[in-house]
Amino acid sequence: MTTSNRVVSRFLLAAVLLVAAAVSMAASVQPNADPKSILDRIYSVAQAERGESRFKTSCSSCHTPLSFAGGSFADRWSGQTMAEVFDFVSNAMPENDPGGLKKTDYADVLAFILRANAYPAGNEDLPIDHDTLKQYEIVPNPK
C-alpha cells in the first residue's frame, strides 16, 4: 500500500467514525416523548386554596371565579402553555397594580383557576419557573 493510499484510507476511516459518532449522538437526543399538559396534576389542593384567598383579595373587584370556569379558560388559552398564561397574568394583573404580586401568589391564583375548571390536583404546587411552566400545554378538560 502506497503512502497516498494509506492517507486516503485513514481519512475515510476518520470520516466514517465521525459520521457514526454524529448519528449516535443524534439518536440519543430524543424529543420529549411524553408531552405534558394541565391534566397532569400540576398543582396542589393547598395551593388552590391559597389561590382562592388571593383571588378574593386581589382579583374579585374585576373578576368572578365564573369568569374563568366552564371551559372559558381552556377556550382562551388552548394550545398555549402555562408559561404564557403565567407571563400574561403576572405582567398585566391586577389591573390596578400590574405585576404587583409575588410570583408565588400568581401561581396560587392560577392553581385556583385550574381547580375551578376541575383539572385534577396533585401533590406538588404549580411551579413559578418559566422553563417548567413551558412544558405544560393548556388542553380542554374532558370532564
Polypeptide structure, described:
With 143 residues, the chain is mainly α. It folds into two domains: 1-30; 36-137, Cytochrome Bc1 Complex, Chain D, domain 2. Helix content is 52%, strand content 3%. The protein contains six helices and two strands, in the order αβαααααβ. Helix 2 (45-58) packs across helix 5 and helix 4 (82-92) crosses helix 5. The longest helix has 26 residues, at 3-28. The radius of gyration is 24 Å and the shape is globular. The model is unreliable at 7-33 (pLDDT under 50).
> Mind telling me the C-alpha Rg?
24 Å
Amino- and carboxy-terminal Cα gap:
74 Å
Q: What is the helical fraction, as a range of percent?
A: 40-55%
Counting DSSP E segments of at least 2 residues, the number of strands comes to: 2
CATH architecture of the largest domain: Orthogonal Bundle
Topology as a string of helices (H) and strands (E)? HEHHHHHE
In short:
The chain has six helices and two strands; from the N terminus they run αβαααααβ.
Mind sketching the topology for me?
Elements: H1 3-28, E1 36-37, H2 45-58, H3 72-77, H4 82-92, H5 103-116, H6 130-133, E2 136-137
Parallel strand pairs: 1-2
List keywords for this structure.
globular; mainly alpha; 2 strands; two-stranded parallel ribbon; 143 residues; 2 domains; 6 helices; Cytochrome Bc1 Complex, Chain D, domain 2
